[in-house]
Amino acid sequence: MTDTDRTIADATRAAREAADRATGATTETAEDISDIVSGTASETADTLSDGAAEAKEAAAEAVEDVRAAAAEAMDKMTTQAKEAFENAKEAADDGVTYVKAKYRENPTLVIAVGAAALVGVAAVLKSIFGRRG
Asked: Which of 41, 72, 103, 133 meets the CB 3.0–4.6 Å disulfide criterion with 110?
């Protein structure tokens, strides 16, 4: 074998060894990068999952608070409406009782007051609707 053949063989062998080392280094680097990416992706997924669970719990608590407040407000409004109705009913009963008593005493006066009230209401309505048109 000549020196040139030996030099070519040595160069070929050296190139193959360099290629093998480069392949090994590339493989190791790719595996390291893959491990890093997998770990980061896993941590990110865990963080997102935890954040989503916390957001879901907070939203559920907010909805429950709104429901409770709405139920309480509805109960209060119902109670107030019942009280107002009872008060109005009592006032109307008292008014009817009063008018009946006055009618028994002086029917003409009660009829005259009713007619005057009707004329007054008509005058108010005429002035309201007369100015609009």
From this structure: 103
